[in-house]
Amino acid sequence: MNPTNRYSIATALNVLALSILASGCIVVVKEDDENDRRRYLHGSEWTLEVVFYRTQTLNSVDRAVEVQFQEDGTVSGKAICGVFSGEYEINENGGISVFSVESSTSCQANAEFDLVSSGLKAAETYDVNESALTISTKSEGYLSFSAK
């Protein structure tokens, strides 16, 4: 066997070995990423920063709206003028659905509370890490939270 053929075979085997190793690493990273997403979503109390829903925007720096997503599929929150709760489902593709949202307010015409509730009901996808949660809505809006 000539040296060129040996080099070609060795190179092909190295490329094959690297391909197998690299594909295994990608799967492990994806699983870790999904576990982190769930852990961060469930393990934090989220404080609302901004809601943009349809044509309305609420910058919530001076308002205390807090939300928690529990591992059992329930979501709950509180604001200055009330509380809300509901159920949610997430999928491995970053999708989120919030449904059965019920609220109780003690203020008259609480626009920000209604805006948050409506935004959650229209939730479509989410992105989360240890310090921030962003929920995108079906109407190209979003809710932005920071970890408390």
Structure characteristics:
alpha+beta; Lipocalin; 148 residues; 34% helix; globular; 2 helices
Distance between the termini: 67 Å
Radius of gyration: 23 Å
Strand percent estimate:
35-45%
Note poorly predicted spans: 25-31
Largest sheet: 9 strands, antiparallel
Helix content: 25-40%
Number of helices: 2
Oligomer category? single chain
How is the CATH topology named?
Lipocalin
How many structural domains does the protein architecture include?
A: 1
Mean pLDDT: 77
Shape: globular
Q: In CATH's first tier, which class applies?
A: Mainly Beta
The run of helices and strands is HEEEEEEHEEE
Count all strands and give the number.
9
Class by SSE composition: alpha+beta
The CATH architecture would be Beta Barrel
